[in-house]
Amino acid sequence: MGVALKLNMPAATPKTMFRFLVLVFWTQYTVLSFVEEVIERLPFVSRFAPFFIPVLFMSLFALSLPYIVRQLRKADVLFVLSVVLVVVMTLLIYPDSKEYISPQLWRIFGMAVPLYFVGVIYDNEETKKDLFWCSLVGVVVALLYQLYSLASGRVLESDNMNTSYNVLPSVMYLIYWAIINNGTKNWIIAFAASALPFIFGTRGPIVAIAVFCAIGLIYRFSKIKNIAIKIFLILIVGVLAVYISSGNRILEWAEILSKRFGEIGFSTRIFEFFIEEDLAYLSGREDLSEAVWKAIKQNAIFGYGFMGDRAIISPYVHNIVLEYWCSYGVFAGSAAIVLTVVMPLKAMFRSKDTDNLWLIIMFTCMVFIKLMLTGSYVYEPYFYLLIGLCVGSLRKYNNPLKVY
User: Which of 25, 125, 250, 263 is buried deepest, with most CB atoms within 10 A?
Assistant: First the structure.
């Protein structure tokens, strides 16, 4: 007598493909990047390794389109068409811009702009747990890979910026999870994960984590109703603040941690900044900013078009404000800056008392701190995801009679 086994597998519907799309996007720089490295070591298929993640992402996006299109509005199509129009106009007005725009078109319209659509229709409740586990696995895999590299005799980079920013979303999500769910275990996981970026020697991710943690802890503190507990916690924080600020505690800790990290083989760059009192060191970015600022003064009204800073310097200015001004002029660029800042703030206000609030705060901390220090909004996928998430939240928590 045969026994029929019923597998609890999700149906391959466009909605399911969208869910997989979100998970692939979230793990592309952590778990899937190591899968890509494995493919690079396989015979016959190693040459296809660089295409693995882009093809997987674009394929899932295409399979998700029926689900995505049903929930879009005219404004969403107009947003993408406006990006296309800006690119086309730049190519027509500044023919030389083709040299630096064309190579990036597949990243912009294949891997970045589609995240706007993902953000607009993203349902946090459906993938919240999935992203938690993906983030936890991503952090663990990143740490294990670094330990494996050390064990195999490799020397870690003193400033591994790419890896640090790649693991940042996973770390931030674990903090987000602790904020919305609270619990000692969740906070232990969050703080343990927050220590990971220190081994890569990059300041931006550490600043983003510190800001988000501070906001989250203040929020959790405000929710405590017991006055005695609040006073006790204030006293604890006050004592710690006095202890840390007295003498040369920070310098002493920096020297101790620098020594321990150096013995293990991790980067000591962050601690050296404290020891040398050089936290404001810009790694040469000030020269790029100065060159772009001079160019802005020469053409302050119209700017130099899409990716205009590339016409002045290489690779880019590492500052979203200067990038906007250089591309679109001071007036249009300033309007874009105001819109970019106001939209998340408005979405936060509208989505208060929901999980979406902390998701928006998380991405805002992560995206803007990064784009003020490095990277470019042009092909930063989390930038477009944040904009889409804000638009989606404004629609979801707004007066249903008003259309965005």
Answer: 25
